[in-house]
Amino acid sequence: MIEHPCVSFMLIQNGKILLERRSMSKEHDPGLVAIPGGHMEIGEAQQETLLREMEEELAVVPTQYRYLCSYLHKTTEWQKIHYYVIEAWQGTIEAHEADEVFWHDLSDRELDIDSDRLALDEFLAQHALV
Asked: Which residues form a coiled coil (predicted)?
């Protein structure tokens, strides 16, 4: 089994998380509601992917972030998704690659991808301990 490394980013603000509706033209998970992210390029570190993908997908630059967890996701390929929590960023959020991005209550788990739900559960469990 070949795992394709990916990085996803959970932008959190005022009890909400930024989600995307993936474009129907995407090869992986078209039309699904998901946490934004993207594939790592060969030789790229996770944090480099995080910076590049946030700029490409949302037109923002993270200024405060931390690693959360990693999960496997089966789509048309096996993806190992490394999740980061983004607590602060610069720029105005724009949907460059998704059909739309929108804020959603953290307490609702209406995500179409199992690994995204697990990552959100992990965030909520850690947040409850603080």
From this structure: none
In this structure, which CATH number among 3.90.79.10, 3.30.2350.10, 3.20.20.60, 1.10.10.10 belongs to the domain 13-129?
3.90.79.10
Show pLDDT as tens, one digit a residue, over the chain (130 residues).
789 999 999 999 999 999 999 988 888 888 889 999 999 999 999 999 999 999 999 999 999 999 999 999 998 889 999 999 999 999 999 999 999 999 999 988 789 999 999 999 999 999 875 4
Alpha helix stretches (DSSP H) within the chain: 46-58, 114-129
Tokens, residue 9: 């980013």
DSSP type of residue 127: H
pTM here is 0.94
Joined together, the tokens standing for residue 108 give 């609702």
From the CB of residue 80, how many other CB atoms can be counted at a distance below 10 Å? 15
Name 120's Cβ contacts closer than 8 Å, sequence gap at least 6. Answer: 10, 17, 35, 106, 109, 111
Q: Which two tokens stand for residue 10?
A: 């959970």
The radius of gyration computed from the CA coordinates of the chain, to the nearest angstrom, equals 14
